[in-house]
Design goal:
The chain is of the alpha/beta class. It is built from four helices and seven strands.
Length: 158
């Protein structure tokens, strides 16, 4: 369990899993970040920047929905990974969990055309590394406002 500005955050750790197992009727949503790792030297910076963006956004989402969501460790893959096979095997296993809702958070648009056992939330990557902290926070909050309806829409379907 991570403490962030006084909030309790649910991560995929042994201690947080104990909390989840005791309170699973309240923690009904799993978020899985999908992170593309570029190994070609020309694309490594963009890949790292995208990863930084998606992980900052995931952290902000996590603070907004404490007690409702569990965050899985990011699933990393490369350009040679067979995404369709990954979707049909490893990621399919999330549909067998006790979570009512599964969301995949990514900056890789390719995932929007692959059927997954949950909803894909695609966000264009925004380079954050050279921004002042206040600007970075403002941009992330703007992005959060764009993804909030995706969560609430899915939750209202239960």
């Amino acid at each position: 369990m991570t403490i962030f500005k006084g909030l309790v955050l649910m991560n995929w750790t042994g201690k947080d899993m104990d909390t989840y197992l005791l309170q699973k009727e309240y923690i009904d949503t799993l978020v899985v970040p999908l992170v593309k790792i570029e190994t070609k030297i020309d694309n490594m910076k963009t890949s790292a920047s995208s990863t930084e963006f998606i992980m900052h956004l995931a952290s902000l989402i996590e603070t907004q929905f404490k007690g409702r969501m569990m965050f899985a460790p990011p699933f990393s893959y490369t350009t040679t990974t067979d995404s369709l096979h990954m979707a049909q095997t490893t990621l399919r296993e999330f549909s067998d969990t006790s979570f009512k809702h599964v969301f995949f958070l990514t900056t890789d648009h390719a995932w929007t055309s692959i059927e997954l056992p949950g909803q894909v939330i695609w966000m264009p990557s925004i380079p954050l590394e050279n921004m002042e902290a206040s600007l970075r926070q403002s941009i992330l909050e703007d992005q959060l406002r764009q993804v909030l309806p995706k969560f609430t829409e899915q939750w209202s379907k239960q």
